Amino acid sequence: MTRARQPSPQTAAVLRALAADPTRWRYGYELGQEVGLKAGSLYPILIRLSDRSLLEASWETDPPQGRPPRHLYRLTSAGLELAAALAPAAAPARQLRTEPRAAW
Questions:
Q1: Are 72 and 50 in contact (CB under 8 A)?
Q2: Domains, the chain, ranges and CATH?
């Protein structure tokens, strides 16, 4: 079954952030800081992407002493394809936001 809806702007931002360096494993906290999402929004997105096989999730293997292991995330090939498909659609939206607003 093919997904008919476009991802939310928040999901698209997470996909684009991960697609910037698709082979690198990323921490959720780091992603949240980069895209400006709090944990309550970010982690459900990461779980949903992982459930749809668009994202790989793994536990950190060697955490520093005194800190529990953290989850790491990176895009699968399907996730990278989706992120690439979203990139052209995102360009016009960025142009609209950078135009000066009319003074009333």
A1: no
A2: 9-80 (1.10.10.10)
